[in-house]
Write a structure and sequence with these properties.
By secondary structure, this protein is of the alpha/beta class. It is built from eight helices and six strands.
Length: 217
């Protein structure tokens, strides 16, 4: 069966509060990418095709893994603009943007629900459009020949899980919250559908001395 493997980028600039500032890997993010690339080569994982979004953090992850030279970019694999949505929620509904990481555990489900229910006026991109571009990109890649590696973001992975499992917006947010930096997610195609086979795997961080590198934000 044909399969695609999605990788969430390495840890980005976690202290940022806007899209541009967030879009670069932290020193730990670069290390996570290198460890993942080393793991894939050690285990002789082979991919006939490699794709990534056009964001800087995607390319830095691909480069750290050793795949940038063979990577095809596709802007449909880019992340949602979460900071843009958060600013709209604050302006329109008075929902403050968290100042601590723990606050996002309740903030993200609230934003996703409002976005999916069209309660955010004039968002930069609708929930439906984001869902459609993610689904079309991944179905198109999955239909290609041979296994594919896709370097992208947590929201894209969460939306793919939503399509496979028929999740609502709040459940999709909970899936996204659990996704670790540099994690692996595999989907098999069968009978015209994609089925999740692996979620949130970080075998390159299994060694006790690397447990500190299991990050979500």
């Amino acid at each position: 069966m044909s399969h695609i493997t999605l990788v969430r980028h390495g840890q980005a600039n976690t202290g940022a509060r806007d899209e541009v500032s967030y879009d670069r890997l932290s020193p730990l993010g670069h290390q996570q990418a290198q460890w993942l690339g080393d793991h894939l080569r050690t285990t002789q994982a082979t991919y006939s095709r490699v794709y990534c979004g056009t964001l800087r953090r995607h390319w830095e992850t691909a480069d750290g893994m050793g795949f940038s030279a063979s990577c095809t970019e596709d802007k449909r694999l880019n992340e949602m603009e979460y900071f843009s949505l958060s600013e709209a929620m604050e302006a329109q509904h008075g929902l403050a943007i968290p100042t601590e990481r723990e606050g996002f555990a309740t903030h993200i489900p609230q934003v996703f629900s409002a976005w999916a229910e069209d309660r955010i006026e004039a968002p930069y991109e609708s929930w439906t459009d984001f869902s459609s571009r993610v689904h079309s990109a991944l179905r198109e890649i999955a239909a290609g020949h041979g296994p594919a590696l896709i370097i992208t973001s947590g929201g894209v992975i969460g939306m793919m899980m939503r399509h496979c499992l028929d999740l609502d917006a709040k459940a999709t947010a909970h899936i996204v919250l659990g996704i670790m930096n540099s994690s692996l997610h595999r989907f098999y195609q069968m009978d015209g559908r994609l089925y999740p086979d692996l979620y949130n795997a970080v075998p390159h961080l299994d060694a006790p001395e690397r447990h500190y590198a299991r990050t979500h934000l």
